[in-house]
Amino acid sequence: MIGQKKRRDVQRDLAKVLADLPSETPDAWFEREITAAKGQPGRDLETLKMLKASLKRAAKKKRSKTKLQTTR
Amino acid sequence: MPAREPKELDENQIARRQRRVALLATAFSFTGQVEYRHAYSQSGGAQFCFGPAATSDLLLVYTEAFERDRDPDDFSLAAIIAHECGHQRLLRDPTLTVVGRKLSGQVFEEVLASLIGSLLVTDSRDAEDLVGKATVELATIGLSAVSVVRTIEQLRGILKELVR
Ligand SMILES: [Zn+2]
After folding, report:
1. For chains A and B, what is the number of CB pairs under 8 angstroms?
2. CA B46, CA B54: separation in Å to the nearest integer?
């Protein structure tokens, strides 16, 4: 079963997990990983790019929410 | 507290939902019975029931799957069904049952079902959502963030070779 947690909350939890990546930002960590993984056997660029994209979307959502709250 | 009842739908509306669910299940190569139940469940919207044989496996989809599908902050119907089809593949596809046996346990079963589901869906956003869900689920076992990402990357890379 997929469970009751909404996608939005899963995205928020994902951002929390990835915030612990050892880099100035998780995005920078993914940039480096993607560059290093290019052409390497056993690496899966697509999955790395997907996680990076999810993170970006979660951050965007958070930004637009903050904006809404502050302009009210 | 009285049980929550879904809004009443006429026969045609229910038949349309049944068709939509069946089409998605077929697209993800589900084997067995597919049923839409116009009721709320505690399942999150869908449930895979393992039968005595693949042809008697059952995919149940409930009202909340359609409500979640309409919510832009929630999983799509396709993602919800693909996750359940992932469970079936894990238990029925001989190459995948090997992976499932080596990585057994509730958490791994959920992680693998989502990763397989991410390889079945056609919408890249659904795939991303399922990979994200698998990642969050795997993190609950206490691995470091780097190990979580590396494991998800490796597992999905392996599953890509095995999911047809
Ligand atoms: Zn599941």
Report:
1. 93
2. 18
Q: What is the ipTM of this complex?
A: 0.93
Q: Please, what's the b/e burial string for A3-33 (b: 16 or more CB within 10 A of its CB; e: otherwise)? A: eebebbebbebbbebbeebeeeebeebbeeb
Neighbours of ion ligand 1 (CB under 5 A): A 1; B 110, 113
List the domain boundaries for chain A.
7-71
The SS3 assignment for A10 reads helix
For the stretch B46-84, pLDDT in tens is: 999 999 999 999 999 999 999 999 999 999 999 999 999
Mutate to test the interface with A, among B61, B146, B147, B159 (most CBs of A within 10 A): B146
* Residue B108 burial (CB count, 10 A): 19
CB contact under 8 A, A2 and B46: yes
- Centre of ligand 1 from the C-alpha of residue B51, in Å: 16
Q: Return the residue matching tokens 């799509």.
A: B76
Beta bridge partners of B47: B60
Q: Is the pLDDT of residue A72 over 50?
A: no
Question: What residue of A is the nearest CA neighbor of B81?
Answer: A2
Query: Please, what is the average pLDDT of chain A?
Result: 90
